[in-house]
Design brief:
Distance between the termini: 33 Å
Number of strands: 9
Structural class: mainly alpha
Length: 348
């Protein structure tokens, strides 16, 4: 799946590169560009189709990707109900998602499956994996089959696009870090004769930059969990009873100077080989931890890295008169820059 994702990421990265070439020197809202990139990547990997987000401003897939989990007060209340009163959700049977968008994704998925069956073609992507699994092929599991790519789209579209845009913001604000990263990208690609899966994995400084971005800007506000058994906190004697709903704040951990000195400073060296082992693994939780961690972690990291590589290989990233530093955020379901992520790209 990762190698398939790498091919899709590369194709979508080239589309983004061509788009940036046409926008050189302009003031750009980079989150918008990163959203287009992610819509195309997930359209390809999850639905097996070309999203055409850079060619068509009003791409249906991107539109419904944004609509499926509405950024509204009602949606926030529904989300809270899912976390804190799941029994009420089961009783009232209300949906968290926009049903118009769900129906769009259902129609798209069924159409692609039908076409592949008729043409006997495959792409070794998520659609192939699910549609060839006997469990999902049973008619009674049709909704479950379609739910997987929808969740895949929701989980990856907003979060990874935001992470890429904020990484680019920090690279614009910190030109020395940007230069060091660009040098690594050029060196590794040169050794491998091109951008390959192995080349991306060899870019250690790029991984440090992504890791520090996710520390300083955790995209999701909380990690909800439920105690599966009674647990005593030894230092205080507090008993967390089985069934208790627990909320873990990313910000409280990632911005705590006890764990990360000078937490507001963007410093990828925190995650260097010599320093990373000093980080308590349970103070850095961009993807959660343990058996309930994010299943899409490796896909998200790979996609974010490829997006940054294509943004830096032929361009320099600069702040401009619209850039806000330090960033100001409004909290919704995901971290959202209040004034956008505004940068300018120039050709190298």
């Amino acid at each position: 799946m990762e190698r398939t994702a790498n091919a899709a990421d590369a194709e979508c990265g080239k589309n983004m590169e061509e788009y940036l070439t046409m926008k050189v020197g302009e003031n750009l809202e980079v989150k918008e560009i990163c959203s287009k990139f992610m819509a195309d990547v997930i359209s390809s990997c999850a639905f097996g189709i070309n999203g055409n987000s850079f060619q068509h401003e009003n791409s249906d897939l991107r539109k419904h990707g944004e609509m499926v989990l509405p950024n509204t007060i009602i949606c926030y209340l529904k989300m809270a109900a899912y976390f804190f009163t799941p029994a009420a959700v089961r009783l009232l049977k209300f949906s968290l998602f926009n049903m118009e968008s769900v129906q769009f994704f259902k129609y798209t998925y069924r159409t692609v499956i039908k076409q592949r069956t008729q043409d006997e073609v495959g792409r070794k992507d998520l659609l192939d994996i699910l549609s060839k699994n006997p469990f999902f092929c049973h008619e009674s599991n049709d909704d479950l089959l379609i739910a997987n790519p929808i969740v895949f789209f929701i989980a990856g579209f907003e979060t990874t696009g935001t992470a890429i845009s904020l990484a680019l913001h920090e690279l614009g604000v910190n030109p020395n870090i940007q230069s060091k990263l660009r040098a690594e990208i050029a060196s590794v690609i040169g050794r491998h004769g091109g951008l390959t899966f192995e080349a991306v994995n060899e870019m250690k400084y790029l991984h440090m930059v992504i890791s520090e971005t996710l520390r300083k800007y955790p995209v999701t506000p909380i990690i909800p969990r439920e105690a599966t058994e009674d647990y005593e906190i030894r230092k205080t004697g507090l008993i967390i009873e089985k069934g208790t709903q627990i909320i873990i704040s990313h910000d409280a951990l990632h911005k705590n100077p006890k764990y990360f000195p000078n937490p507001e400073v963007f410093d990828p060296e925190r995650f260097s080989e010599s320093n990373v082992h000093s980080i308590n693994s349970y103070t850095y939780l961009p993807f959660g931890k343990g058996p309930r961690n994010c299943i899409g972690e490796r896909f998200a990291l790979l996609t974010a890295k490829v997006g940054i590589i294509y943004a830096l290989t032929k361009f320099m990233v600069h702040t401009n008169s619209n850039t806000t530093e330090p960033m100001e955020f409004s909290r919704s379901l995901f971290l959202t820059a209040k004034h956008g992520v505004n940068l300018t790209f120039t050709r190298i």
